[in-house]
From TrEMBL:
Belongs to the PIGG/PIGN/PIGO family. PIGG subfamily. This is GPI ethanolamine phosphate transferase 2 C-terminal domain-containing protein. Keywords: Endoplasmic reticulum, Glycoprotein, GPI-anchor biosynthesis, Membrane, Transferase, Transmembrane, Transmembrane helix. It holds the Pfam family PIGO_PIGG. One of its GO terms (cellular component) is endoplasmic reticulum membrane. Pathway: Glycolipid biosynthesis; glycosylphosphatidylinositol-anchor biosynthesis. It comes from the Eukaryota. The lineage of its organism: Eukaryota, Metazoa, Ecdysozoa, Nematoda, Chromadorea.
Length: 754
């Protein structure tokens, strides 16, 4: 049975509408454009302006500095002694590098669409302090992440950029920045110097957010800042050293979401040879909470430049430096006054005087009042800085409904279960259900398997009942095994320990600390590889009609894992290149695309997860053997997507999987490998299912496409309804992107399997 025309028409409508929606997100303006201020402050910079060293530490999470066991002693001593100011910075969605750099240099809030264009950065035209300094005859030097060069290709008088996407390198990528420090600190040829260190972020992506190497990298960054500050103090030249993180890092080492670990970053300022008006702190508990665009406003004020009219930043030096210019302070206040007027924000200043509480018109009080009001205006601007493309969403939703109706023509209604799964879409209206969607699919899948067993058990021949019962039981056991594989890594278990109740039976827990399978096989990779190889070779005989050839092809990627375990990275890179090339003639000669895809997937899977995906393959085989209904099969496909740790948050995307076997950054190859790992669960499940019941695949794909289209429609509907919701960019928008991706994957599967 071939997939009929409704599937292809629905696929075309989905792809066409996807292009429209992605274009709409990409073209969203990150900040509302306002009219130019009537008062124009010309940048007439004096020759004696202070210098600036701006250091960005990629993935510099706030707790890396504030934890009591932090190795950043120079940072902490400087803050506690009053030599530096520390702030609790908020990096808003999306928490990826490119939009956060834009926020640092322009003071605006980049749109959600910049998440999509993060890997294809283009030159920005927005007013920013780097371009302004260049136009005023200042020399700006840069070393680090090449994203800056793509954003500002002609603004730096001297630069040396490093590739930001090759996450396996966390040593040379920072050494290439540090090697310029001695000459730059002694030369004095620069007015502003920007350093962007990537090593911390790369350790997180490649080794995880709990890697012991993180501590060494933090200590390295602390030593570098100590070296910079001490050298600048010797020069006696007024200089500001500003250090900040572009985004944070989850316990898994990734980022992109809106959790505190991803969005709270430290911002530390050293005003070299200047006095503080601020009292030194004795703890990090009450750090002033600021916005990331405040860094831009701070740099504009340092050089005495007027902030851009669309900047939402508030200078961090206001009220904190004794010798601060009153003109700079006045500019900041008037800037927010103009912003409030242009955006219709009223009730700017309110003073309440009573007999019991007389008015206080002292300078500190008025200064604090105005600062608090500016912060209130800033919060309102941030909350409304990017709007949902409502018209495009309406058009997209209409096209999606049409695609669902057409797709429905291709599969036959069999039972109430066929439509019961659509009820799950009600959960899209609750943000917590979206964040924990994997739990819903786990429960629904297990329930549907049991319903299938109870419904069909009596109709099976008596001599086959034991076999069916055993297969169903094994299927449920494998389901539970896969669920538990990454359950301890989920968001709800990554809570602050202070929020959790005290543990009971501490001594018993300490004595019976049994690691989960994921941890065990991560610590015992050779055992994982040996067991996985034996089982894979045993099950691959059922894949195709030529078991010897299939088993031989499966050995290729498994041997690659052995090379990696022994540290032969360079040889492994060449070996995998040969494997990829070999798959082309193998496919052309045999036509066995499932073996080719399986080989590619096995390449990118971490060694400690090989057994997990063996279990998923067996689940596909068992689902086919017990003739599971398409509703339960579709639910199992969705469950397998979450087994490896995926969720509806971009933070769970494992970037390191895209660089397996690569010694350099190849965007297309990285994208393919990242896609294969992200969807490894569904791919391997379908291969297992396909090897036994390939005739039902067309109808299953048609049904599953309809389910995914309906789910996508409800996601779009929720995004439209909750476009002013607090979690519109952190929960609802990523959900739409994931549902779009799911639909595209079903279309690709239809092309390959038919």
């Amino acid at each position: 049975m071939k997939i009929q025309w409704p599937f292809w028409i629905s696929s075309f409508l989905v792809i066409s509408s996807t292009v429209l929606l992605l274009h709409s997100f990409i073209t969203i303006q990150g900040a509302d454009q306002i009219t130019t201020s009537k008062f124009s402050f010309k940048d007439d910079l004096p020759n004696d302006t202070p210098r600036l060293v701006f250091v960005v530490i990629d993935a510099f999470r706030l707790t890396f500095l504030t934890d009591t066991d932090s190795p950043m002693w120079f940072f902490r001593d400087s803050i506690f002694n009053g030599n530096a100011m520390a702030f609790d910075g908020y990096a808003r969605m999306p928490t990826v590098t490119m939009p956060r750099i834009i926020s640092f240099i322009t003071g605006t809030l980049p749109s959600f669409g910049t998440l999509i264009t993060n890997v294809a950065t283009t030159e920005i035209t927005t007013d920013n302090w780097v371009t302004r300094l260049k136009n005023n005859g200042k020399n700006v030097h840069f070393y680090g992440d090449d994203t800056w060069i793509r954003l500002l290709p002609t603004e730096f008088s001297k630069f040396d950029a490093t590739t930001s996407f090759f996450v396996n390198d966390y040593t040379e990528v920072d050494n290439n920045v540090t090697r310029h420090l001695d000459s730059e600190l002694k030369s004095g040829e620069w007015d502003a110097m920007i350093l962007h260190y990537l090593g911390l972020d790369h350790i997180g992506h490649s080794l995880g957010g709990r890697s012991p190497k993180l501590r060494g990298k933090l200590k390295e960054m602390d030593g570098i800042l100590k070296r910079i500050v001490e050298e600048l103090e010797k020069t006696k030249i007024p200089t500001y050293v500003i250090v900040g993180g572009d985004h944070g890092m989850t316990a898994g080492g990734s980022h992109g979401g809106a959790s505190p670990d991803e969005s709270r970053v430290p911002i530390v300022i050293w005003p070299i040879n200047q006095k503080f008006a601020k009292v030194p702190i004795d703890s990090f508990d009450n750090l002033e909470k600021v916005e990331q665009p405040d860094v831009s406003a701070t740099i504009f004020s340092i050089f005495g430049m007027q902030s851009p009219t669309d900047s939402h930043g508030f200078s961090l030096t206001v009220g904190n430096l004794e010798n601060e210019s009153h003109l700079i302070t006045m500019r900041q206040y008037y800037h927010f006054y103009e912003l409030a007027k242009s955006h219709g924000i009223d009730n700017l200043f309110t003073l309440s005087c009573t007999e019991d509480s007389p008015c206080d018109f002292s300078k500190p009080f008025v200064q604090k009042l105005i600062k608090d009001e500016c912060r209130r205006i800033q919060r309102k601007l941030m909350e409304s800085s990017a709007s949902i493309p409502s018209l495009q969403l309406a058009i997209f939703g209409s096209v999606i409904i049409l695609a669902a109706i057409i797709s429905k023509l291709n599969w036959e209604y069999e039972s109430l279960l066929d439509v019961s799964v659509f009820i799950l879409n009600i959960g899209c209206f609750a943000s917590s259900f979206i964040e924990e969607e994997h739990e819903i699919w786990y429960y629904v899948t297990s329930s549907l398997i049991v319903v299938h067993f109870l419904k069909n058990f009596r109709s099976v021949e008596i001599d086959k009942q034991k076999t069916i019962f055993g297969s169903i039981l094994l299927l449920l056991l494998l389901q539970r095994f896969c669920i538990n594989w990454t359950s301890g890594m989920r968001r709800r278990w990554a809570m602050d320990q202070s929020l959790l109740p005290p543990p009971m039976f501490n001594e018993m827990i300490a004595n019976f600390n049994i690691p989960d399978a994921n941890t065990f096989f991560r610590n015992s990779p050779f055992i994982s590889l040996a067991v996985s190889t034996i089982i894979w070779l045993f099950v691959c005989v059922s894949l195709e009609s030529s078991p010897k050839l299939s088993g031989f092809m499966i050995l290729f990627p498994l041997f690659s894992h052995l090379l990696r375990l022994f540290g032969y990275v360079n040889f492994d890179s060449g070996y995998l290149l040969a494997c990829r090339i070999l798959l082309i003639p193998f496919y052309l000669l045999t036509g066995k695309h499932t073996i080719c895809v399986l080989c590619l997937v096995l390449i990118v899977i971490p060694t400690n997860q090989l057994l997990l995906f063996i279990s998923i393959f067996l689940m596909g085989r068992l689902a086919a053997d017990v003739k599971l209904e398409k509703t339960a099969t579709g639910s199992m496909i969705m469950s397998t997507f979450y087994f490896s740790g995926n969720s509806n948050s971009f933070a769970t995307i494992m970037l390191q999987s895209g660089y397996v076997g690569l010694l350099d950054y190849y965007p297309i190859l990285v994208g393919i490998q990242l896609f294969l790992y992200t969807y490894a669960g569904p791919i391997i499940f379908v291969i297992g299912f396909y090897s036994s019941r390939r005739k039902i695949i067309p109808q299953l794909l048609s049904y599953f496409l309809t389910v995914r289209i309906i789910n996508l429609f409800f996601s779009i509907l929720c995004l439209y309804i909750f476009q002013n919701h607090l979690f519109v960019w952190s929960v609802y928008s990523p959900k739409v992107m994931y549902d779009l991706s799911h639909c595209i994957v079903v279309v690709i599967a239809g092309i390959l399997l038919v």
